[in-house]
């Protein structure tokens, strides 16, 4: 069970497995890693938010008023005025924690420069092999499948989440604008009607995608509000209440203090000296 301080947990239940959580509808966690780097933030007249890297070669759109259900669209460019080198999309139901895992990894790659955030996957490479993306899932018992001639898939043990990889040549424009991308991660029983989905184009760096699959594979549950049933898959997800933390175990000093507070007065009431006019100190208002 997570060790978060109860006061900071945004929810009253834990949801597991975490791929059966959905969006929290709070954008700040996904935006903050890039805003902290000084990326420029602006909004359009509809309320969509846009973040642009200082060099103009990486951009994020948070699009609640977009033309489709692609809520998060992140692109990187070799030339700030050219077409995207790669693109990633998370739809409006994707767990916010998975988006945050991606933007956190992107922030770190951006700090290291274009050789990191524009690093194309390269089979056999130590740090760029596409196999790195599926490795966290394999380690958690996800199973390989071959649903189509050109598609490899790896599916969660409960059968309710799948990562698909399409082989062969793909049209870059189609990858960026549709779900027909190189990588397709989704939850549900059918990719046609997923609980949520994310896509990534061919040249998306493997290290960035691995950050997402590590977040998906993490066995720790995610916090959600029980009554907000749109934030998790109610019919399949397991929920458990988030209880306030137990009071700390008393120390020996605490025990002694508690015992002392329960002791009777040292003198019986009849023995307590009374004030009188002959006392050295008079009561307030009395003469000496």
UniProtKB/TrEMBL annotation:
Q: Where does the chain cross the membrane?
A: none
Pro residues: compositionally biased ranges: 242-251
Entries under Pfam families matching the protein: SPDY
Which segments of the protein form a coiled coil according to its record? none
Domain (DUF317) spans 52-109, 155-222
Compositionally biased, Low complexity: which spans? Answer: 261-274
Classification via InterPro entries: DUF317_SPDY (IPR005523)
Residue ranges of the region described as Disordered = 236-288
Protein name in the entry: DUF317 domain-containing protein
């Amino acid at each position: 069970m997570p060790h978060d301080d109860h006061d900071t947990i945004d929810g009253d239940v834990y949801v597991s497995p975490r791929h059966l959580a959905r969006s929290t509808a709070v954008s700040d966690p996904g935006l903050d890693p890039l805003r902290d780097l000084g990326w420029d933030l602006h909004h359009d007249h509809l309320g969509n938010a846009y973040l642009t890297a200082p060099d103009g070669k990486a951009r994020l759109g948070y699009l609640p008023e977009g033309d489709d259900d692609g809520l998060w669209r992140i692109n990187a460019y070799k030339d700030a005025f050219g077409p995207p080198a790669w693109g990633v999309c998370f739809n409006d139901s994707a767990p916010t924690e998975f988006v945050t895992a991606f933007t956190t990894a992107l922030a770190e790659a951006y700090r290291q420069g274009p050789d990191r955030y524009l690093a194309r996957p390269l089979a056999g490479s130590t740090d760029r092999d596409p196999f790195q993306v599926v490795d966290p899932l394999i380690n958690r018992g996800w199973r390989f499948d071959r649903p189509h001639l050109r598609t490899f898939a790896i599916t969660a043990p409960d059968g309710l989440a799948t990562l698909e990889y399409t082989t062969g040549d793909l049209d870059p424009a189609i990858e960026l604008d549709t779900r027909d991308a190189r990588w397709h991660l989704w939850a549900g029983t059918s990719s046609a009607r997923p609980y949520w989905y994310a896509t990534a184009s061919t040249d998306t760096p493997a290290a960035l995608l691995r950050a997402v699959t590590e977040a998906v594979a993490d066995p720790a549950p995610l916090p959600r509000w029980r009554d907000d049933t749109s934030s998790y898959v109610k019919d399949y997800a397991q929920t458990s209440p988030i209880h306030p933390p137990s009071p700390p175990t008393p120390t020996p000093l605490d025990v002694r203090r508690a015992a002392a507070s329960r002791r009777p007065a040292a003198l019986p009431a009849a023995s307590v000296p009374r004030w009188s006019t002959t006392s050295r100190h008079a009561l307030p208002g009395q003469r000496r």
